[in-house]
Specification:
- By secondary structure, the protein is α/β, with parallel strands linked by helices.
- It contains 6 helices and 14 strands.
- The chain is globular.
Length: 249
């Protein structure tokens, strides 16, 4: 079972010995609180992969240091969740920086060690593939890439699925506003609204997206799902993913 620790801004959840989450409040367009999250994956050799880096502050840095390993990978999973990668790269210059198609132009002053969607998928090797598989959704609007930690059967993705309200990303007892509480019931994976959202907002190439969704559904045994926005789905992640993308089946 996950444990939670509250600091002034960052909420830390240690899901197991391999996966620790660093979450914080985030409001979309200044209106809807959806939270934001970075996932730290500790590999078998104790190297650490950071997926979807959030702002680098002393609290987060201390939490990463407590994991006991070297930050080896800094991973921006799409063209939206990337704003803090330069700070993280400066702090951990030996870490490999992995992005997606479209990010090189947004960060001309840094060198990417890998660009998913540009690199040849048949030959590209970043170093974590034995433990973390990935699937690039080239047909998604944000060029999302999903990651799958095999040892814990955990899927990690930025904007492929939401699970609101984001109670784990806000202080205990936080009062969400009137508008948010009316919207949240429609933004979990099992709603028709979420299915409409995945089809008409998250996908720009239905054929390619369908291929990617089916690959994940057929090849990854997803127990846990970690979204960037909303609460973690500890069990039944595969069912939630299929529900959110039901139009692909």
């Amino acid at each position: 079972m996950a444990s939670s620790a509250q600091t002034s801004a960052v909420r830390t959840q240690k899901l197991d010995s391999s996966i620790t989450l660093f979450s914080r409040p985030f409001t979309r367009s200044g209106v809807l609180p959806i939270g934001i999250r970075m996932t730290a994956v500790v590999l078998r050799n104790k190297d650490v992969a950071l997926i979807s880096p959030t702002p680098l502050d002393s609290e987060t840095e201390s939490g990463i240091a407590a994991l006991g390993g070297q930050v080896k990978y800094i991973i921006a999973p799409n063209v939206v969740h990337h704003l803090s990668i330069e700070d993280w790269k400066k702090r951990y210059p030996s870490a490999k920086l992995i992005g997606v198609k479209g990010l090189v132009e947004k960060h001309p002053d840094v060198t990417f060690d890998g660009v998913i969607g540009v690199d040849d998928p048949k030959t590209a090797r970043y170093g974590f593939e034995d433990e973390i598989e990935y699937r690039h959704f080239s047909g998604s609007a944000n060029q999302d890439t999903a990651y799958y930690h095999k040892d814990t059967e955990t899927m990690i993705a930025a904007d492929l699925m939401f699970n609101l309200p984001p109670t784990q990303q806000y202080p205990p007892g936080f009062k969400f506003g009137f508008l948010a509480t009316r919207i949240y019931p429609y933004l979990n994976p099992f709603t028709a609204t979420h299915r409409f959202f995945t089809k008409h907002a998250l996908s720009k190439d239905a054929k390619q997206t369908t291929e990617d969704v089916r690959f994940v559904a057929e090849n990854w045994k997803v127990k846990r799902y970690v979204p960037s926005h909303g609460d973690v789905i500890e069990d039944g992640g595969d069912k939630a993913f299929r529900a959110a993308w039901a139009w692909c089946f």
